[in-house]
Amino acid sequence: MLPNHPPLVVAEQFGTLESLYPGRIDLGLGRAPGSDPITSRALRRDEQRAEHFNDEVTELQALLGPYKGDSPVRAIPGEDTNVPIWLLGSSLYSAGLAAKKGLPYAFAGHFAPRFVEDAIALYRREFQPSEVLDKPYVMLGLPVVAADTDEQAQFLATTAKQRILALMRGKPLWLKEPVATMEGLWTAQEKMQVENFLGLSVVGGQASVKHKLSMIKQTLQVDEFIFTNDLYELSDRQHALEILASIMN
Fold first, then answer.
1. Which domains are present in the chain?
2. Which of 40, 146, 171, 195 could potentially form a cystine with 243 if both were Cys, beta carbons 3.0 to 4.6 Å apart?
3. Nearest by Cα to 224 from 143, 145, 146, 137
4. What pLDDT is stored for residue 37 in this prediction?
5. Structural contact between residues 130 and 61, judged by C-beta atoms closer than 8 angstroms
6. b/e per residue, 99-133, with b = 16+ CB within 10 A?
7. Would you call the peptide bond into 136 cis, given omega within 30 degrees of 0 as the criterion?
């Protein structure tokens, strides 16, 4: 969340990571604060910083690129590491900026599915080739619950529903054990809000998950997925990842 951090600090932090693990580091940049107001104040966040997101992305690109001999500020380490930059978004703004700058774009479908079609369409339509990319490249974040059967996956998915419900109520976000039914845990309005929040959830057994991912990829022209996996038991989480790995391979 770039408005929370000075570009020079980000450049040096990610330059350090790239120096330690060459070729394994990507840098995703978001324009939103990504936190509650109390945390934002603790970070000494300037509420106007988001308005300068475009300029700060440009500054960060320069700090991570080769030194051109005309800047008094240099990121050491960071300079000339050329860490790949992604723009992250949940609305149309970052989609348009990623297109303008010719950068890869990642949409936060795991919590903001509302604008997914419009944002990806805008990005692809307005994309301008750059030194980084010659054509658009889209990553989509999705919440996934994969299990041996559709019924088991629906049961396990109640953990994620309880977590989003807690988020909406301003409660702690610790994962809770899955429940047989959500009835009695939420109001009709809260149910609608949670289901809208998780509108792109992919829940099911292997065949169902594979089919749903295929349809999403085809419909939205997605190049890559990134998944959230809110399952209570570590063993269920690991098994879900094994199922995903078998599908993606």
1. 2-141 (3.20.20.30), 143-220+230-248 (no CATH)
2. 146
3. 137
4. 65
5. no
6. bebbbbbbbbbbebbebbeebbebbbeebeeeeeb
7. no
CA 151 from centroid of its chain's CA atoms: 27
Q: State the pLDDT at residue 51.
A: 83
Q: Is the pTM of this model over 0.85?
A: yes
pLDDT digits (tens, 9 = 90+) for 177-222: 999 999 999 999 999 999 999 999 999 999 999 999 999 999 999 9
Q: How far is CA 195 from the centre of its chain?
A: 19
Sole residue written with tokens 């629906």? 154
Using pLDDT thresholds of 50, 70 and 90, give the confidence band for residue 71.
Answer: confident
Question: Helices 188-197 and 158-169, interaxial angle, to 10°?
Answer: 110
Q: pLDDT by residue (tens digit) across 88-130?
A: 999 899 999 999 999 999 999 998 899 999 999 999 999 999 9
Distances from the Cα of 174 to the Cα of 161, 170, 206, angstroms: 12, 12, 27
**CB neighbourhood size of 9 (10 A):** 11
d(CA 84, CA 66): 14
Q: How far apart are CA 104 and CA 123, in angstroms?
A: 9
Cβ(89)–Cβ(140) under 8 Å? no
CB 147 within 8 A of CB 239: yes
